[in-house]
Design a protein that fits this description.
- 27% of the residues lie in helices and 27% in strands.
- The protein is an alpha/beta fold.
- It has 17 helices and 30 strands.
- The strands form five sheets. Strands 18, 19, 20, 21, 22, 23, 24, 25, 26 and 30 form a ten-stranded mixed beta sheet that branches. Strands 1, 2, 3, 4, 5, 14, 15, 16 and 17 form a nine-stranded mixed beta sheet that branches.
- The longest helix is centred in the last third of the chain and has 18 residues.
């Protein structure tokens, strides 16, 4: 059992250091020697032959091949490449829809030894109970899990209602806990820039605790970006283009290149390659990984492979995921294979297609050939159950009433970088008739803190729907969100999700085509990863039958971020159509009679 609260001071145990020093001198044997490998040097960028001696969790020696053979265990790499364990600097386990133990089982054997988890999805549903679960569920995992305190619960106060709220006092109490390693992504950008007291207090709590304050700076530039950073925020993963990456590097932000927006990675690689070097402020993150992708491709290891495939040098991609990441986290024990560092070590046969063969975490072999060594006990999930506090819905709940003959309605245009629009609509039998070119969206509060009748809106440029999709995975308040072409299918999909205790469902022609139950918080399943991945794949396939996607923005993933009200532009929430930039909140999309 590993006590993460002792790290990194566990390496300073007197008896451990004494034994490791003796081994380094040659006066005592190593516990393990890793021989026959090519060390990938994260400082110099060299690939060089070297043997490595470890004592417990500590690297005691890196020396020329064949110099030593005195060890209790000899691990022959057979010419494999030896790298530090990979570090994911920003991610959400809940996005993979599995428990922390299942996530660890998936990524540890792939070479991921450290993750930085922002559990704000759980916090938006359960508040402190969700954070306590995250602490207990990861405390003894071999996957090093550095938890952050969710900063934006909800992400757009006053414009949406989540299941809980985190204020400055709560943040200070969280940051006083040794299990909490910093302030998670600050998404309420406008609140920080405008100096709103709540956000000032939350950021200041991080500064007072001396822990990192992580950012979410999508679309910020010029004076707004300067104000955001001056508040004390250090990082960003919300990059939108190559020029945006370069501007934020020049500004001095820690960059977390994220794998969840694959269409941008080639442009980022081109930008870095033009610089001619990898800035030390570039790290990698996965952010969100769906369960089928997690099972098939992995976590941050997949991001490394894709960056290399798009033209980044393997040594650079790996340095971003190891040494640069460790420096960003202030963890001098991680990210480098050198005497005195922690024995987080990965052996891989190929750097161009990085696939871990052996994974060592704190000196212990935890993975071989993609399989986990040992077992991971499940955590108690009682606190995450019964989060759906909403009654079944009727088709009329997805209609907008009006006493007029014709109305003007506000629309939310474009799946990403949303903007306001408006259109004329007829009224028939007391209900607004959606124009042919709009998609219905409805958000129903499901946390039991307010009226659960859906707030209905209209989307444009969302394609032609032939059914409906309902989900409680709906960033970031995770209310029940339903998209569709007609109220009957929307009610069918919504009620399937309600009956499942949360999750997602697809409906068409009055019937349910696919359903993924997520009974833990409406976000997570305690089923095995293959089962969750298979059900999620069925939902994806069902969605492909009712909507024709238009990448890069009109894609399945867009459905989960359509309610992210902290971002600029209008977004539908359980309170109405919200726009944090203008402070506008429309409880109904009906504007005028025209």
């Amino acid at each position: 059992m590993t006590d993460r609260n002792r790290e990194p001071d566990d390496l300073n145990d007197f008896a451990l250091r004494k034994r490791a020093i003796a081994a380094a001198r040659g006066d005592a044997p190593f516990d393990r020697m890793i021989v026959g490998g090519i060390l990938v040097d994260m400082v110099t960028g060299e690939r060089r032959a070297a043997d490595i001696g470890t004592v417990g969790p500590l690297i005691a020696s890196v020396h020329p091949p064949g110099v030593r053979r005195d060890a209790a265990d000899i691990l022959d790499t057979a010419g494999g490449f030896v790298t530090p364990g990979l570090i994911d600097t920003h991610m959400h386990i809940e996005s993979s829809m599995v428990t922390p133990a299942t996530y660890a089982r998936a990524v540890l054997p792939r070479g991921v030894t450290t993750i930085v988890w922002d559990p704000h999805e759980l916090a938006n549903v359960h508040g402190m109970d969700g954070i306590r679960f995250a602490i207990e569920a990861t405390r003894t995992l071999a996957l090093r899990t550095l938890l952050l305190a969710p900063s934006c619960v909800p992400s757009a106060p006053g414009f949406e209602l989540a299941g809980a709220e985190v204020d400055a006092g709560t943040m200070a109490r969280l940051l006083a806990m040794p299990d909490i390693h910093g302030v998670a992504e600050v998404m309420n950008m406008r609140g920080v820039i405008n100096g709103e007291p709540t956000m000032q207090g939350i950021v200041q709590a991080g500064l007072a605790a001396g822990k990192p304050v992580c950012g979410h700076a999508r679309g910020l530039e010029g004076a707004d970006l300067a104000a955001f950073m001056t508040a004390g925020i250090e990082s960003d993963h919300e990059l939108v283009s190559g020029p945006d990456l370069l501007a934020k590097l020049r500004a001095g932000l820690i960059i977390e290149l994220r794998g969840s927006h694959d269409h941008l990675l080639p442009e980022f690689v081109e930008t870095i390659n033009r610089l001619g070097h990898l800035p030390q402020t570039v790290t990698l993150c996965s952010d969100d990984v769906f369960p089928d992708d997690l099972m098939e491709r992995g976590g941050i290891d997949d991001v490394v492979r894709r960056l290399v495939r798009y033209g980044l040098r393997p040594e650079w991609a790996l340095r971003a995921a190891t040494l640069n990441a460790a420096q960003r986290l202030g963890r001098r024990d991680l990210g480098l294979i050198a005497a005195g560092r922690r024995a987080d070590i990965v052996i891989a046969p190929d750097l161009d297609d990085f696939q871990a063969k052996v994974v060592i975490a704190s000196g212990r072999i935890v993975g071989r050939n993609g399989c986990l060594d040992g077992t991971i006990p499940p955590a108690d999930t009682t606190a995450l159950r019964h989060s759906m506090k909403i009654a079944p819905l009727e088709p009329d709940d997805f209609r907008i009433r009006s006493d007029l003959d014709r109305v003007r309605i506000a629309t939310i245009d474009r799946p990403r970088f949303t903007r306001w629009g408006d259109v004329s609509a007829q009224v028939h039998d007391g209900f607004v008739v959606p124009p042919d070119d709009v998609t219905l969206i409805a958000v129903a509060h499901r946390h039991g803190r307010a009226d659960s009748r859906p707030c209905v809106g209209f989307l444009r440029e969302w394609g032609t729907w032939r059914g409906a999709f309902a989900t409680t995975v709906s960033h970031d308040s995770h209310n029940l969100t339903v998209f569709g072409s007609n109220p009957a299918d929307m009610a069918a999909a919504a009620n399937a999700v309600i009956a499942a205790g949360g999750g997602m469902a697809v409906a068409s022609k009055g019937g349910v085509d696919a359903c993924l139950p997520l009974p833990l918080s409406g976000l997570v399943s305690d089923a095995a990863l293959p089962d969750v991945a298979q059900a999620f794949t069925a939902v994806r396939a069902a969605m492909d039958r009712i909507i024709d996607w238009q990448p890069p923005y009109l894609v399945f993933k867009a459905c989960f971020g359509a309610t992210l009200a902290c971002n600029a532009g209008p977004h539908q929430t359980d309170r109405g159509i919200a726009d944090v930039e203008t402070g506008r909140l429309l409880e109904t999309p009906v504007l005028t009679d025209r």
